[in-house]
Amino acid sequence: MTMVDQSTIDTVVEVAKVAGNSLVLAKLLDVAKSGIGAVARPWMIKRDARAHAEADVEVGIIREASRLEAEESRRKALPPAPELQAPRSSELTRPADTGLVIDVDWEDLPPLAKRTEQRLTYQEEKRQLNVESVIREAAEELQGATEISDEPVDDDWTARFFGSVQDVSNGRMRKLWAKILAGEVVKPGSFSPRTLEILRNIDPKDADLFTRAARLATRNGAILSIGEGKDFQDIQLAMTLTEAGLFNTRFAMSYGLRSTNDDRFHSHINFRDVALRIAGENPKGTVAIEAVALTRVGRELASVVATESCRQHLRDVADYVQTYGHTVTAHRIVRMTDEHTADYDETPIDF
Q1: pLDDT at 110
Q2: Cα separation, 77 vs 71, whole angstroms
Q3: CB burial class (10 A; 0-12, 13-18, 19+) of residue 299?
Q4: Residues 231/237, Cβ–Cβ less than 8 Å
Q5: Is the CB of residue 256 less than 8 Å from the CB of residue 287?
Q6: What is the pTM of this model?
Q7: Averaged confidence pLDDT in the chain
Q8: Does residue 57 register a pLDDT over 80?
Q9: Contact at 8 Å (CB) between 240 and 209?
Q10: What span, in angstroms and rounded, lies between the C-alpha atoms of 199 and 30?
């Protein structure tokens, strides 16, 4: 059975020591062992099936030899065929470009069963390397993690996850999968099975496009149609991410801001790492901005593909809100208490 190799275990142990959190070690190793066991089971089934197939091949070879021997006996019993004279080479029409001709000596190839075994071995070794690369990168992502749930990661989720990452060879995509594994270890349930399924079918080009979109999005999944955000109202871009399951363009969306204070206008917009705090004199004032909405899958993936918001976009949004007569300051988010509420540093930052 395929197992987690010692170098991967050593990496996870070292990260746990640096993080000073033994729960990191225990949870990640449990998930890794469970996950690699899940992807190893199909290989073991194939191995057993291959053993049966090899026996069937040998029986087939014997049958084929008997058939050829019988055909040879029948051929010898028939009268000789008339001799046909082959045309001279000068009489043949030669195409202008014959292209490249590769002469394969099929007699020198290993037997079919052996070739099948070699292909499956290469495939499984490549998958093993992909899986262990993701585990190592997830361990690195967990450095510095302080708050980790003791809830176990769901076994079905683990099987889906490793069943997907075993075929991911692209380095950037593996990094994304590693962040998802780290996030699920910290807080199980952060990423739905549907998110895993959609990510499995996203290519690196679409992932890059979505990363650009995620850096513009608010924490609750809105891309305000201001500045660079207007680009994502472009039909082609929007449809690409809609077809990928990351955008919801079926409904028009207006991002509205209302005051949370009865005496004067006070509101905020939470982006990835920065909150814009908005203040004004009129408590009944509002701000309305057209926006494009991310799907639930889009919101989940945005949390791992973008750690910082686009600063130019923040400036564009602030400039727009100020046309309503409000003042806008930027503050670094310390932590999110829920999907909509943030604790942030009271000291404004330049942006």
Answers
A1: 73
A2: 10
A3: buried
A4: yes
A5: yes
A6: 0.73
A7: 80
A8: no
A9: yes
A10: 23
CB 213 within 8 A of CB 232: yes
Tokens for 348? 């404004």
Segments making up each domain of the chain, as ranges? 6-59+113-200, 204-344
> From the CB of residue 233, how many other CB atoms can be counted at a distance below 10 Å?
14
Cα(276)–Cα(38) distance, integer angstroms: 45
Whose tokens are 């593909």? That residue is 305
Integer Cα distance of 306 and 230 in angstroms: 19
Position of tokens 């449990």?
30
Distance CA 44, CA 48 (A): 6
- Burial grade of 30 (CB within 10 A; 0-12, 13-18, 19 or more): middle
The identity of residue 255, as a single letter, is Y
How many other CB atoms sit within 10 Å of the CB of residue 160?
Answer: 17
Cβ of 83: how many Cβ atoms within 10 Å?
5
User: Taken in order 276, 280, 285, 288, is the CA torsion positive or negative?
Assistant: negative
The conformational region for residue 331 under phi > 0 = left, psi -120 to 50 = alpha, else beta, is: beta
Query: Within a 10 A sphere around the Cβ of 176, how many other Cβ atoms?
Result: 22
Per the model's pLDDT, the better-predicted residue between 347 and 100 turns out to be 347
H/E stretch holding 234: none
Q: Report whether 24 contacts 16 (CB < 8 A).
A: yes
Query: Is the CB of residue 193 less than 8 Å from the CB of residue 296?
Result: no
Answer whether 221's CB lies under 8 Å from 299's CB.
yes
More confident residue, 133 or 52: 133
Q: How far apart are the first and last CA of the chain?
A: 53
Q: What's the pLDDT at 76?
A: 63
